[in-house]
Each structure stands twice: as C-alpha cells, then as structure tokens.
Specification:
- The structure is a single chain.
- The protein is built from four helices and six strands; from the N terminus they run ββααββαββα.
- The protein has helices at 30-39, 45-63, 84-89, 131-161; strands at residues 4-10, 17-23, 73-74, 77-80, 99-105, 110-118.
- Strands 1-2-6-5-4-3 form a six-stranded mixed β-sheet.
- The chain is globular, with a radius of gyration of 16 Å.
Length: 162
C-alpha cells in the first residue's frame, strides 16, 4: 500500500469530482473493486446503486460534498452513507443499511473514494468485511493528507522566495 496513485473516478458531475486510489499495478481503482464486488451480489446490488446515486446524483448534481454528508468519521476518513437526520432524509435511516464506503472529503468539490464492505457488527472495526478496509482507508487518508501538507509547505516556501 506504499505505492498508490490518485485517479479520477467520476468527473462528469457538475458539483463534485470524485477520485479513487489505484494500489500498485492493480487494474482496478479501490472504488471499482467495491462496485465490482457488490454489484453482482443479488443481496447488495440495490445498495450499491443507492450509494452510487448518493455520490453521483445527490452530491454530484444537487448538493455538492457538503460536510454534513460525511458525519460518520472513522479515523482519518469517513464512511458513507450518512447517519442521523440527513441519513433519514436521504432514505438511509431507519433501516440497517448493510454497506459502508470509506472516503475522504477534501472540499465541497472534491471527494476521494476508497473501498468498503458489509457492516455486520455494531462497530465497523468488528465487522470482518470492513476492519481491514477501514485500516487501509485510514492509511490512504493519512498519506494523502501528509502529501498535501508537504506540497502546500513547499508552495508557501517558494512563494516567499519570489
């Protein structure tokens, strides 16, 4: 996981550009792995569609990556779908929505999507399908944040030299 690249997953939305990570020489982005794994599962395909709709239609076209939508913090990342009042408003509340997707919101216009899985326990870290993906999302988010800080620091230093 030390070697990963950030690539566009969806840039056709008018309000948000969605990125995902590619680990090493993998043929698929982490978000593509998530979709591929669950879209063919008859018990999860509808849930995958709901999450993609949340991303592309609601965030991408209606509301943007509003901070209120990322109200499930998990270490350095967040998990979707949102919970609480906004989760209810979007149709995710009041039922056990089985899938979680890890992500990193950088702004109202930029979201990095990682991988996810089925939440089968009360706590995310206790769900066998999610615990490792949660750890990986945290590692990606930390490395990504550190790279941004380093690049921003260099920009400030260079600007001072100009």
């Amino acid at each position: 996981m030390n070697n990963f690249t950030l690539e566009v997953w969806d840039d056709e939305s008018s309000l948000v550009t969605f990125y995902s990570v590619r680990v090493g020489e993998s043929k698929l982005l982490e978000m593509e792995k998530f979709v591929q794994k669950y879209e063919d599962d008859p018990n999860q395909s509808t849930h995958v569609d709901e999450l993609i709709s949340l991303l592309v239609e609601f965030m991408g076209e209606e509301r943007g990556a509003d901070e209120a939508l990322f109200n499930r913090p998990v270490n350095s990342a967040a998990e979707l779908p949102p919970t609480g009042k906004i989760g209810y408003e979007l149709g995710f509340g009041g039922r056990m929505f089985p899938l979680r997707l890890f992500c990193l919101r950088l702004s109202d216009q930029v979201v990095v999507l990682f991988n996810g899985g089925i939440k089968s326990s009360e706590r995310t870290q206790d769900s066998p399908d999610l615990s490792m993906k949660m750890y990986e999302a945290h590692q990606f988010a930390q490395k990504f944040s550190m790279n941004l800080i380093t690049q921003f620091s260099w920009m400030i230093l260079l600007a001072g030299e100009l």
